[in-house]
Design a protein that fits this description.
The complex is a heterodimer. By secondary structure, chain A is of the alpha/beta class. Chain A contains twelve helices and eight strands. In chain A, strands 3-4-2-5-1-6-7-8 form an eight-stranded mixed β-sheet, with helices on both faces. In chain A, helix 1 crosses helix 11. Chain A starts with a strand and ends with a helix. Chain B is elongated and about 75 Å long. Classes of the chains: A alpha/beta, B alpha/beta. At the A-B interface, helix 7 of A face loops of B. The complex binds adenosine-5'-triphosphate and magnesium ion (MG). Magnesium ion binds next to helix 1 of chain A.
Chain lengths: 267, 225
């Protein structure tokens, strides 16, 4: 019996879909059977980030409304040998097309066949959020080091703590720019974690490679050389129960290096 | 035959006190009060005299209280200052007890959450921005107050807010409101502070230690040294 993990944030655009794609991919790299579920009905993205858009035949709403069986709607990721699948969201309906109890039933069914169900949640706290959380056992809350994102994360954590079936949520801080944090222009990791008072499961640097990779439909987690990739893989290892110390953000070395370069007049 | 004295009037330097006996019927009492006041009405005087009414062990409904006030008010220069009774209803007693109770809670009050108690609140945890705590009485926070705290929310102006870290977005005591300065005073410590309504009817924030002088009633400890 697998476990369902919802990736949520409250605020939009902080990296839920990117996190879902990469954490799911990293879990599959560990040999786990993973099913990604996109619950952002009407604004689906996860298929694009995963590079699976062209293979979609049926979607979540088709399954819920009985037009097809679950396995018919699942899109297989060919980069993995039968380990990674995506259940895409519908693009033509809206969030009210699915009810929380239907979602729960669907996720429970997927849990029979997969080790991890990674649920990408839409922004907001309405119907879409309720659907995404309905079948979840665990929750990862994504925030960026901005006051507004942290405020919304706090709101979402409050709601998640009321869900009886969901374990205490864990925090991911995404898009960290260490030079801004050091200058005090951004909230720092300790400040955010203390403020939200939940466990931190990972920090991810702001990395252009993430955007490039998403645009190519290749989750960054597949590329072992980027620092964001290491961060996502570490999150997956922590989900699997390993205790991996938080990596210092590699950017710090780079910024020292670039200072030296500047000092020598090299551009 | 001398009639029972159900209504007695006593003059003090602050005004008059009317003692209304509690053993007769209410209608009897009203009748006698009317007579008594008519004979002692000093129509010539234009100075207003305030009257305190003591009704002993009689329970008066709010309608009856109004009736008595009206009756007394008709005597031109009398004003009812208060009606006091030795008895209250069970509900009032329960409410009073609630309002004197300290409710403790160990939790975070997050954005969008509201915690309200009738009496004093002892919160072990933070109030985050966007979170609100309300209390009929005082609010004591062992943690950081970064959201809204409203003490004395049913009108008690003596109520106070105490926090280990005082960085509220807004403080309210009774009907006074005080919001955080627009510029964030980032490096200010603001530890172990209390907020109260000062003599200018404004909310003041000060060191915790001033409370024992300003609000000695917070102490419920009896005896000791
Ligand atoms: N660590 C990162 N470094 C750089 N860019 C990032 C990072 N994480 C996410 N992004 C970029 O931020 C944008 C928003 O990310 P994403 O779509 O994952 O957010 P979301 O929370 O799913 O948004 P929505 O609320 O609209 O669903 C994307 O362009 C993505 O490539
Ligand atoms: Mg998204």
């Amino acid at each position: 019996m697998g476990e369902a993990i919802v990736i949520t944030s409250g605020k939009g655009g902080v990296g839920k879909t990117t996190t879902s794609a990469n954490v799911g991919t990293a879990l599959a790299l560990h040999g786990k059977r993973v099913c990604l579920v996109d619950t952002d009905i009407g604004l689906r993205n996860l298929d694009v980030v995963m590079g699976l858009e062209n293979r979609i035949i049926y979607d979540l709403v088709d399954v819920v409304e009985g037009r097809c069986k679950i396995h018919q709607a699942l899109v297989k990721d060919k980069r993995f040998d039968d380990l990674l699948y995506l259940l895409p969201a519908a693009q033509t309906s809206d969030k009210s097309a699915v009810k929380p109890d239907q979602m729960k039933k669907l996720v429970d069914e997927l849990k029979q066949d997969y080790d991890y169900i990674v649920i990408d949640c839409p922004a907001g706290i309405e119907q879409g959020y309720k659907n995404a959380v309905a079948g979840a056992d665990q929750a990862l809350v994504v925030t960026t080091p901005e006051v507004s994102a942290v405020r919304d994360a706090d709101r979402i954590i409050g709601l998640l703590e009321k869900e009886e079936n969901v374990e205490a949520p864990k925090l991911i801080i995404n898009r960290i720019r260490s030079h801004m944090m050091k200058n005090g222009d951004m909230l720092d990791v300790d400040e955010i974690t203390a403020h939200l008072s939940i466990d931190l499961i990972g920090i991810v640097a702001d990395d252009d490679e993430v955007i490039k990779a998403s645009n190519h439909g290749e989750p960054i987690a597949l590329n072992p050389n980027s620092k964001a990739s290491v961060a996502y893989r570490n999150i997956a290892r922590r989900i699997l129960g390993e205790s991996v110390p938080l990596q210092p953000l590699e950017e710090e070395n780079k910024s020292v290096f670039s200072k030296i370069k500047k000092f020598f007049g090299v551009k | 035959m001398k009639k029972n004295q159900n209504v007695t009037i006593k003059g003090t330097k602050d005004g008059l006190t009317l003692h209304l006996d509690d053993s007769c019927s209410y209608s009897e009492l009203k009748k006698e009060l009317d007579i008594k006041l008519s004979e002692s009405s000093r129509a010539g005087e234009d100075r207003l005299i305030s009257v305190r009414v003591q009704v002993g062990n009689r329970y008066l409904t709010s309608v009856q209280q109004e009736e008595l006030k009206e009756l007394i008010r008709q005597k031109k220069n009398l004003i009812v200052e208060s009606i006091s009774s030795n008895v209250i209803t069970k509900e009032e007693a329960a409410k009073q007890r609630e309002e004197n109770e300290i409710t403790s809670a160990a939790k975070m009050i997050r954005s969008g959450q509201v915690l309200e108690v009738p009496g004093d609140l002892l919160l072990i945890g933070d109030v985050n921005p966007g979170g609100t705590v309300l209390a009929g009485g005082n609010i004591f926070i062992m943690g950081a107050l970064k959201g809204i705290a409203h003490a004395g929310c049913r009108g008690n102006k003596k109520a106070v807010v105490v926090a280990s870290l005082m960085k509220p977005s807004q403080l309210r005591i009774s009907d006074c409101i005080n919001r955080a300065p627009d510029k964030d005073q980032h490096d200010e410590k603001r530890e172990m502070e209390c907020a109260y309504i000062d003599e200018n009817e404004q909310i003041t924030v000060d060191r915790l230690q001033v409370l024992m002088h300003l609000r000695p009633n917070i102490t419920r400890l009896q005896g000791g040294s």
